[in-house]
Amino acid sequence: MLPRNWNILIIDLKDCFFTIPLHPADAPRFAFSVPKINKTEPMDRYHWTVLPQRMKNSLTICQTYVAEALCPVRKCFPHVYIYHYMDDILLSSPTDNLTQEVLPVLRQEFQTWGLQIAPEKIQIEPPWKYLGWKILQHSIQPQNIAIKTEIRTLHDVQKLIGNINWIRTQCGIDNHTLAPLFELLKGDTNINAPRRLTNEARVALHRIEEKISAQQCQRRAENLPIQLYICNQNPQPLAIIAQWDSNATDPLLLLEWVFLPHQPTKTLATRIEMFSDLIREGRERIIEMAGEEPKSIIIPIVKDYLDWCLQNSLELQSALSGFNGQLDIHLPSHKMLTFYNNVHVEDKPLYRWHPVQGQTVFTDGSGRTGKAVVTWEQGGHWQHVIETIQGSPQIVELHAVVMAFKQWDQAPLNIVSDSHYAVGVAQRIERSQIKHIHNEALFLKFKELLFLTEHRTHPYCVIHIRSHMTLPGFFAEGNARADQLTNIALQVPVPNTLSQARLSHQFFHQAAKALSKQFAIPIGGAKLIVQTCPDCQQRPGPPTTVNPRGPLFSSALAN
Question: Of which family is this protein a member (predicted)?
């Protein structure tokens, strides 16, 4: 991180690869031959005396060799920042001694190592250009970048996103802007699979070009502390590493953006979990850049909810572990922070961990029958609503919760369910980011539930209860009624006890003695049910379309 107003000197090494000598003992190992035309005479044999081209570890050797050559210069001038990548070297100092003192020592040290500085590539005055960046006295911005819009294959899309990715943290290109380009990565995974830019992708590229040309990052002010700002935008928050100079015309010195992954690691990422990930990544990045913790972290969240999260959220506690700076909830007033349209203070969720004063309903669902049930007591009588839906048990259970939210959208609500899955989703989904899943029906059900929770105005509580409890009480009775309403026996009338036993055995495959005791039928009838069940036979019967084989069957057929 280059401090403001520090002098900069950028140099380039001339033919760096061809000036790094090989050890005389190793040089013969890098031999090669040049054949003669039509093999008129033996091939000429040579070997490299300098670092060979196209060797896999040549780049690593070059980087290490130049670093060794710079070590004496670093020790001689400890106050000078020296950045180097291969043959490109940047020096920065708070004083004016770079050209008069540092450069002669550097040139002499390089000559000792056999390296030469290209005099025509020495940069002393701004703007300095280094590794694709244009550096000014107070700011850093990318050089003129031409974004390739001719997309024909999946490989072209991958290269385009890769080129944008390395500058996005300096230009503020968030995941929402890149989303139409990410959609082009889906589909056929063949690297040469055809791809075409959609209208949404063209609009996204136009916005990206505007940000690249307009946005810039500031160089660090040495006398100001570094702060981490959390911007609570939709659908995904982001963070800004910045400094605040109250004496400047533009007080916000933006150093870098911090973004979350496009897709969360969990199916549902809550708002507090996303805040925690940004704090964790922001702290690590600031320590990496400046070697110190941020002076303050600002989270746009109401104080009561922040106090509750500090006591109960393990993710936030882990993200703030060891942080000794200031934790604030008020973002400063600045046009850059209002650039994100949906920035707002995170309020306490409507979800409550304890039951609220309102209607209590019981939900249940059965993947076997496809019935989603909501039942409740009103005026001493039990009421219920039943809907049939196609899908897995998880989809049916979630649909029952959706039914409850739709019917009591303008009143406090307690939802009781015996499904761990449905309860866990309903407790976490408010203000969460949903990871895209391949089950389209389940993904749409998540989005519907997210919409209902975010547009509520009254609190709600979702409670889990163990299924099939024989304990007395209101909760056990309500859950039992919901469970009975999803039973398949309510759909098909059973004529007699023997038919009930046959249906039960088709599903549970009980033994004859257990079947006789459970349904109070004769043991002979129970054995007949078991014997006629094809899944309970110890050996398969003979095929019906082929004559039985063997001497016993042959004699029986002859008679």
Answer: Belongs to the beta type-B retroviral polymerase family. HERV class-II K(HML-2) pol subfamily.
Distances (CA, A) of 5 to 99, 251, 253: 16, 17, 14
Chain mean position to CA 107:
47
Average pLDDT over residues 179-205: 91
Q: Where do we find the tokens 């084989």?
A: 549
Question: Which domains does the chain possess?
Answer: 7-132 (3.30.70.270), 142-217 (3.30.70.270), 220-328 (3.30.70.270), 359-485 (3.30.420.10), 495-559 (1.10.10.200)
Find where tokens 């040290």 sit: 109
- Distance in angstroms (rounded) separating the CA atoms of residues 70 and 502: 86
* Token pair belonging to 85: 């990548």
Total count of residues recorded for the chain: 559
For 37, the token pair is 């035309």
CB 229 within 8 A of CB 239: yes
Give 46-104 as a DSSP string: EE-SBPPTT-TTHHHHHHHHHHHHHHHHHHH-TTSEEEEETTEEEEEESSS-IIIIIHH
**What is the predicted pLDDT for the residue at 555?**
53
Q: Which long-range contacts (CB under 8 A, 24 or more apart) does 96-104 make?
A: 96/7, 98/7, 98/8, 98/9, 98/124, 99/9, 99/124, 101/77, 102/9, 102/73, 102/77, 103/9, 103/11
> Which of 556, 546, 509 has its CA nearest to residue 529?
509
Mean pLDDT of 195-212: 90
Angle of the 103-112 helix axis to the 58-76 helix axis, nearest 10: 130
In order, the DSSP letters of 33-51 are EEPPGGG-SPPEEEE-SBP
CA–CA–CA angle 302, 304, 307 (5° rounding): 110
- Give me the residues paired with residue 135 across strands: 128, 140
Could you report how far apart the first and last alpha carbons of the chain are, in Å?
A: 101
Closest CA to 532 of 517, 515, 519: 515
Hey, what are 182's tokens?
């990410």
What residues form DSSP beta bridges with 398? none
pLDDT tens digits, one per residue of 514-530: 989 888 889 988 888 98
pLDDT at 539 over 90: no
- 550 pLDDT band, cuts 50/70/90, is low
Closest CA to 427 of 435, 443, 415: 415
pLDDT per position as a tens digit, 280-293: 999 999 999 999 99
Distance, in Å, from the CA atom of 330 to the CA atom of 344, rounded to the nearest integer, reads 11
Given a cut of 80, whether residue 203 has pLDDT beyond it is: yes
120 by Cβ neighbours in 10 Å (0-12 / 13-18 / 19+) ranks as: exposed
Whole-number average pLDDT of the chain: 88
- 204: its two tokens: 């996204």
Q: How far apart are CA 302 and CA 294, in angstroms?
A: 21
